[in-house]
Each structure stands twice: as structure tokens, then as C-alpha cells.
């Protein structure tokens, strides 16, 4: 049994202008100790989805099971207890601005009637964990965005939750800070075994931190599975749009301005150490025909060289096939890029 | 420049005015703070929307606030007599002042509480906070600067109203200004009372703003 299970979850908002279907028949399974990414464009329904996981939003239909417990069956009091076992962090941190750092971290413990002394000791330990023990007496307004998010993480962990929900937790942060927050989340997952659900609109966040991902579009799950598999070969239109990224938009513009003619576009994905070999250069030497690199994105993700490229192959169909075979023989994933992405 | 008797009268006037203002503000908050909290909580964007309760309080406080204070003062005379036993003097003035101030304070509190960031409330909710936790540990704490500023405004307004009660024998500096300045044409005494009211107002205002600044930790 998965730790978090969603069965046919729908959420409809009734408004005078008509109903808005934020979620439509969502099924999801999140296993214990997963770092599960939920990715989608703005307005796809991912924020509503994560709020259903602690019943900040009640689904209109369907059920949500946490550890086998149906949230809809809980009384108001039981639900509050359940919420205290699910930590949550937010895009805008949502710290108490009139309380200092340590009081913020103590807050969930004080709600649980933990004695002040005990709560403060636990808060100090957590601040040490997130690297902010020297800021205990500071007020949130004196901290940077990354530090505020660290305080929020410490606060979310104070009541020793089993699950940590992150709602666009890195969207207001710069790339370096994002990286360090994601490292911290991974560390927490590894060392405390806390299941983490990350809501984001950035594929890089999912690649960096998550082992599984669900792609949400228009209130529905477009596809779900292991990050590596989906990144290498996205099956859904929404998945391709997110993974191929803005590059495909640029390519379309280049094409429409007619400055470039390309026979066939393929996307290749580097896995393991293949991006350290000059595969493309070797292929060009081998076939004595140039290819167009339309987009390239490589980097070190989790200690493994990973990345992808979109290539424009020559117009000769036989040559195209031979090149695709060559790339596959060298251990690369090759997919044709369609017009619609 | 004044006789000792006049000076004593003015000192008593200051004492009465301060007494009326502070008592009415405190009692006004005892009534107005819960009104404001309930308004903010039951509003359609509040943490527990309730149209009926909101509407009832909304209408009552609007009616009370729309009656000019001097008329309220006269309308309430029987009630005042019932509560304090007489309808003149500073203790009697406190009754209509509180009735007038409570809905006004309720509105001030409501608007302060509505400024609290919805995200912080949501975060508290996600940690398992109950409605009461959210009111007492989040809303009232986060809004404290605005609440203190509001209290300063309320204090100033009530000081002004207490002077108005002087026209019907309300006691305090307003009473002196009306009796000597208006009925006896002793302009010098009237000018002094007006100056004293201005000084009192400034003192309240300065203290209020100092406290507001002290409790502000958001910058």
C-alpha cells in the first residue's frame, strides 16, 4: 500500500460565471520515502492538488488515503492531528513576521501543547540542521529568501511529520539558493526517511531532486512514472512541452523566419557518461555531413552527466536513418520531435 | 494669570477628560475587539465565513455609527441614568461614549485583522491550528502594529467626543470650554482648555505611535 493514494479526485469551484474544474479524476500513488514531483504549467491545478493532500482544500469527489486513512472520514480534531503530521512549505515562506525565528519554529509545537523549554530545544536542533542556529533571535524580515525558506523547513519539520509538502518552494529563489534548498530537502529525505511532495513548474527542480514525477495538465494527470524514464522519453504532449522547454519555441521562430531549413528534428538524451564523449562531433566526422544543433542543455545532475539536445538532421532520408542508428548505437535515446512541440 | 480656583478647575478638567477617554476606550475595546474579530472571521473571505452573523453585526454597527454622537448622547439618557444613576458628569458620559466607540473600534479591528497575510493563516492551518489558535496566535499577533495604530486613532476620536459631551454637562475640559467660553464669554479660559485638549491629544498620539513602532518587527 502506498503512503499517499488518490482515487478519482476531482475539485470543482462553483462561481457565478460557471464551474471551474481545477482537478478532474486524479489517480496517484506516492510511496513512502519518495521525492515525488508534481509538475505543470500555472493554472494546471497542481496547487489545488497539493492542498487536497492535507485537506486545506476538500475534494468534491474521490478519496485521499494517507497511510490507509481516508481523510474524509476524519473528524475536525483528527484532521488537525493529521495535518500536524504533514509539514508544508510555501513559495512565499509564510513565516510569522512578528515572531522571531525560534518562535516560528516552535509554533507548531506550541500548537501541540509541547512545553516551551522542550519546544525551544527541539527548535534549536532543527535550526542547526538547516544551518541557521545563529539566527534564532533574528526576525524573518532580517533574513534572505533562502534563509526564510530554511526557517520554514525547520518549522515544517518541528512536529516530526511523515510527509513534507512543498508548494513552489523554490520558485521565488535564485538558481544557487534553489540548488541548496533542494540539497537540503534531499538530505532530509535520505536521513529522516520523510516522504516529500514537490510542486513546481520547473523541470530542472524535478530532475535535480525527485525520483518520481506526475505531469499535470488541465487538472488531469498527463503521465506519471520515474523521472529518468519520463525525461528520456516523454509520452504525453504536456510532458514534451515541459521537457523540451522553451527551446522548441525558439526553433519554431527560427524556422518561420526561413533563415534555416531542417529536414528532420530529433531529440537526443545523454544518459550516464555519454555526454563526456564527443558523440556528435564523431558522427559528423563519420558521415562527413554537418548537423544543426538547435538546442543543447547539459549539466551535472546528482553526480551524473545528463542533458539533452535537439538536432536538425539533413534532408536526405537515408542519411537521417543512418544517423539515428549511429546515435542509438552510442547509447543515446533518440526521439523525433514533432511539429506541435 | 488665573486664580488658584480656576487652575484647580482646569486640573480637574484634565483629570476628568483623561478618565473619560481612557475608561471609554478600554470599555470600547472590551466590546469592540470581539465585534471586530467576529466580523473579520465571519466575512466571506474570513477563516469561518458566516453570512448571517456577519450581516447582523454589520447592520448594527453601521446603524450605531451613522447616528451623530450628540443625538446618541441624548437618546441614551434614560439608559445612562439606569446604568450610572445620573445623566450628567464624566461617569455618565462614559456610557454613550462606549456605545458610540464600540462599533467604531470593531471596524478598526476588522480592517487590521483583514490585512493579515492569508498565506500565514494557511501555513498555520497546515500545521493543524484550530480557528481559535489562528485568531489568538496568528491574526491578533501579526496585526498588532495595525491594532495599536488603530487604538491610537480610537483614543484621539474618543477624546474629541468626550469634549463634545460638554455641551450637555458631560464634565471634563469640553464642559469647561462650553460653560466658560460659550455661556460666560470668558475667552481666555476657553482658549486654555482648547490648548489643553490639543496637548492631551498630542501626548496620546505620540505614546501610541511609539508603542506601534516598538511592536513592529516586520522591517
Summed up, the domain count of chain B is 1
Radius of gyration of chain B, in angstroms, nearest whole number: 20 Å
CATH homologous superfamily placement of the largest domain in chain A: P-loop containing nucleotide triphosphate hydrolases
Which of globular, elongated, flat, extended, rod-shaped describes the shape of chain B? elongated
Mean pLDDT score of chain B: 94
Biggest sheet character of chain B = none
Verbal overview:
The complex is a heterodimer of chains A (341) and B (219). By secondary structure, chain A is α/β, with parallel strands linked by helices. Chain A contains twelve helices and 14 strands. Chain A has two domains: 224 residues, Rossmann fold (3-Layer(aba) Sandwich), CATH 3.40.50; 92 residues, 2-Layer Sandwich (Alpha-Beta Plaits). In chain A, the strands form three sheets. Chain A has a six-stranded mixed beta sheet with strand order 6-7-8-3-9-10, sandwiched between helices. Chain A starts with a strand and ends in a 5-residue tail after the last strand. Chain B is mainly α. Chain B has ten helices and no strands. Chain B is elongated. Classes of the chains: A alpha/beta (341), B mainly alpha (219). At the A-B interface, α2, β6, α3 and α5 of A face α6 and α7 of B.
Amino acid at each position: 500500500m502506498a503512503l499517499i493514494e488518490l482515487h478519482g479526485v476531482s475539485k470543482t469551484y462553483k462561481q457565478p460565471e460557471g464551474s471551474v474544474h481545477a482537478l478532474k479524476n486524479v489517480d496517484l500513488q506516492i510511496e513512502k520515502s519518495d521525492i515525488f514531483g508534481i509538475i505543470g504549467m500555472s493554472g494546471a491545478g497542481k496547487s489545488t492538488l497539493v492542498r487536497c493532500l492535507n485537506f486545506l482544500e476538500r475534494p468534491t469527489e474521490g478519496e485521499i488515503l494517507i497511510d490507509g486513512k481516508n481523510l474524509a472520514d476524519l473528524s475536525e480534531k483528527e484532521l488537525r492531528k493529521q495535518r500536524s503530521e504533514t509539514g508544508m512549505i510555501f513559495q512565499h515562506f509564510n513565516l510569522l513576521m512578528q515572531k522571531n525565528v525560534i518562535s516560528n519554529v516552535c509554533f507548531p509545537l506550541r500548537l501541540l501543547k509541547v512545553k516551551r523549554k522542550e519546544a525551544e530545544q527541539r527548535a534549536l536542533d532543527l535550526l542547526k540542521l538547516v544551518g541557521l542556529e545563529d539566527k534564532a533571535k533574528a526576525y524573518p524580515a532580517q533574513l534572505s529568501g533562502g534563509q526564510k525558506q530554511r526557517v520554514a523547513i525547520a518549522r515544517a519539520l518541528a512536529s516530526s511529520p511523515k510527509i513534507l509538502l512543498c508548494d513552489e518552494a523554490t520558485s521565488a529563489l535564485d538558481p544557487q539558493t534553489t540548488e541548496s534548498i533542494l540539497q537540503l530537502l534531499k538530505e532530509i529525505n535520505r536521513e529522516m526517511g520523510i516522504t516529500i511532495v514537490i510542486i513546481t513548474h520547473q523541470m530542472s527542480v524535478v530532475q535535480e531532486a525527485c525520483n518520481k514525477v506526475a505531469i499535470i495538465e488541465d487538472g488531469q494527470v498527463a503521465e506519471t512514472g520515474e523521472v529518468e524514464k519520463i525525461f528520456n522519453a516523454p509520452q504525453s504532449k504536456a510532458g514534451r512541452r515541459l521537457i523540451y522547454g522553451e527551446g522548441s519555441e525558439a526553433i519554431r521562430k527560427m524556422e518561420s523566419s526561413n533563415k534555416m531549413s531542417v529536414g528532420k528534428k530529433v531529440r537526443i538524451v545523454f544518459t550516464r557518461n555519454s555526454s563526456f564523449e564527443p558523440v556528435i562531433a564523431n558522427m559528423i566526422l563519420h558521415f562527413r555531413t554537418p548537423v544543426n544543433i538547435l538546442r543543447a542543455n547539459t549539466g551535472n545532475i546528482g553526480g551524473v552527466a545528463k542533458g539533452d539536445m535537439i538536432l536538425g538532421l539533413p534532408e536526405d532520408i537515408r542519411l537521417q536513418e543512418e544517423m539515428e542508428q549511429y546515435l542509438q548505437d552510442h547509447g543515446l535515446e533518440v526521439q523525433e520531435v514533432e511539429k506541435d512541440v | 494669570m488665573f486664580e488658584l480656583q480656576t487652575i484647580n478647575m482646569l486640573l480637574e478638567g484634565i483629570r476628568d477628560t483623561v478618565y473619560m477617554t481612557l475608561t471609554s476606550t478600554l470599555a470600547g475595546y472590551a466590546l469592540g475587539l470581539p465585534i471586530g474579530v467576529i466580523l473579520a472571521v465571519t466575512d466571506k473571505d474570513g477563516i469561518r465565513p458566516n453570512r448571517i452573523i456577519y450581516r447582523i453585526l454589520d447592520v448594527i454597527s453601521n446603524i450605531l455609527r451613522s447616528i451623530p454622537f450628540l443625538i446618541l448622547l441624548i437618546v441614551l439618557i434614560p439608559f445612562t441614568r439606569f446604568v450610572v444613576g445620573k445623566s450628567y458628569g464624566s461617569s455618565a458620559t462614559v456610557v454613550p461614549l462606549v456605545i458610540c466607540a464600540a462599533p467604531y473600534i470593531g471596524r478598526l479591528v476588522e480592517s487590521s485583522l483583514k490585512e493579515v497575510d492569508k498565506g500565514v493563516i494557511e501555513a498555520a492551518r497546515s500545521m493543524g491550528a484550530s480557528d481559535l489558535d489562528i485568531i489568538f496566535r496568528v491574526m491578533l499577533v501579526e496585526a498588532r502594529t495595525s491594532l495599536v495604530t488603530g487604538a491610537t486613532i480610537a483614543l484621539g476620536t474618543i477624546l474629541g467626543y468626550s469634549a463634545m459631551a460638554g455641551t450637555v454637562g458631560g464634565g471634563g475640559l469640553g464642559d469647561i470650554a462650553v460653560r466658560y467660553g460659550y455661556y460666560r464669554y470668558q475667552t481666555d479660559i476657553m482658549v486654555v482648555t482648547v490648548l489643553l485638549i490639543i496637548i492631551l491629544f498630542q501626548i496620546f498620539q505620540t505614546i501610541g505611535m511609539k508603542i506601534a513602532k516598538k511592536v513592529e518587527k516586520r522591517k
